[in-house]
Amino acid sequence: MSSSIPLLAADHRAGVVYEIHDGSRRVAVADSWLAEHAGFLRLPAGSSGRWAFADDRGGALVIGDADSVRRVPIAIPAEHLACDPSGRHVVVTSGLGMNEEAWTDLVSVVDLATDSSVRFRVRTGEPGVVVAPDQATGEPMIVLRHREPGAVEALPLAAALEVGAHAPVLRGHVIDDLAADGHGDVVDPASGIIGIATSRGLERFIVDGGVPRAIGIVPWPVAGRAYYLRLAGDTGRATGIVRGGPASPGSWPEWTNTFVDIDLASGASRTVPLPPGLAFRFALATGVAAVSVIHPDEDVVIVIDREDARIARITPIPAMTHPPRAGRLPWDGVDGRPAQRRSIAIDPGTGTIAVTSGGDGTIHLVDDSGISTIELPTPLDEGGHLLWAGADHRVDDLVGR
């Protein structure tokens, strides 16, 4: 199961990122605590980096490429990451961190060409973010998704880059035609259409003359809702997993899961039913998606043929050493350890799928020939984060994390 590109594995509890390549393993980034909610951001080919993540302890955006790693100061705790289509500017919003209530209103914008950053204040909360072109001018706009109450705010990227010292307030045009529970954001940089996942469906917006404008809601094609979106760059469609079933979090083994693929312009959708259980984040490569589903009976990795909207392969994988327990919240810790989940990634060149085992430092590699494993010296508590780090393969770039 060799690959021409390296696999990155971040242990955000241990503060280390490993690079795995051709059977070798090395520490790629030390003493950096990847922001778990934001995860990795793959940068577009041609930008001055291949990937980036927020160091939620050191207060920096960490940018890596094949030869080096560099750091630029940002405000933390980091919640979401997004970059413009050129890959020059990365926007970082702030979240809760270890606090129970929203307390910070800082947004950072990093210029990767100069390794400089600015900070300004917006509305306190956990804003989602994308960078979208203005329909009237083509100007890049920072678009923030606010919650409770729901709102969409558009600010010119150029105005953000010009703010001065001392974290000034910066406000843009705001519309409040958005459900209060938004979680999951995507933008098609070609059309400028923004999609936001809420309980009402996929809510779509554009920015026109500096002002966000709603262009309609696509109801979820099955019962439930999605909480996490990715743009399939090969098709320009929004993808997600709609979760349905019992409302009780303790009933997570009974949750239904459906992979959805939605045309942002027309609203036309395709669906692929998946097994019940806890389906966390998923991965994309050209024409396919990969999902891991956790269930007390059996954990599986599922490969989805996105073109034909069908399951191409289901592979049972070894159970986690410290799995979530039925009847308890799936994100609750057990026996003093953090809740365990799985991270998943697809090698865009070979199609090999990497999935973490959750809490024992093992990564499973899955392909047509079977399963092999990689052992790391730290446990990858909470599942860690994975990324195949090839700069020339970008199916899901430019997506807020």
What report would you give on this structure?
The chain is mainly beta. It has one helix and 32 strands. It has a four-stranded antiparallel beta sheet, with no helix packed on it. The protein is globular. The protein starts with 6 loop residues before the first strand and ends in a 13-residue tail after the last strand. Residues 397-401 have low confidence and may be disordered.
Question: What can be said about this structure in brief?
Answer:
This protein has 401 residues and is an all-beta fold.
The share of residues in helices is: under 10%
Q: Count the helices. How many? A: 1
**Rounded radius of gyration (Å):** 20 Å
Main-sheet strand order equals 3-2-1-32
Distance between the termini: 28 Å
Shape: globular
Class of secondary structure makeup? mainly beta
Low-confidence stretches: 397-401
Report the major sheet. Answer: 4 strands, antiparallel
Number of strands: 32
Bin the strand percentage: over 45%
Name the descriptors.
single chain; 401 residues; mainly beta; 4-stranded antiparallel β-sheet; 47% strand
Question: Secondary structure elements and their pairing?
Answer:
Layout lengths: L6 E5 L4 E6 L2 E7 L10 E2 L8 E5 L4 E5 L4 E5 L4 E6 L5 E6 L11 E6 L4 E6 L6 E6 L6 E7 L4 E6 H5 L11 E3 L9 E3 L6 E5 L2 E8 L2 E8 L6 E8 L4 E8 L11 E8 L5 E6 L3 E8 L2 E7 L4 E7 L4 E8 L26 E3 L6 E4 L5 E6 L2 E6 L9 E4 L13
Antiparallel strand pairs: 1-2, 1-32, 2-3, 4-5, 5-6, 6-7, 8-9, 9-10, 10-11, 12-13, 13-14, 14-15, 16-17, 17-18, 18-19, 20-21, 21-22, 22-23, 24-25, 25-26, 26-27, 28-29, 29-30, 30-31
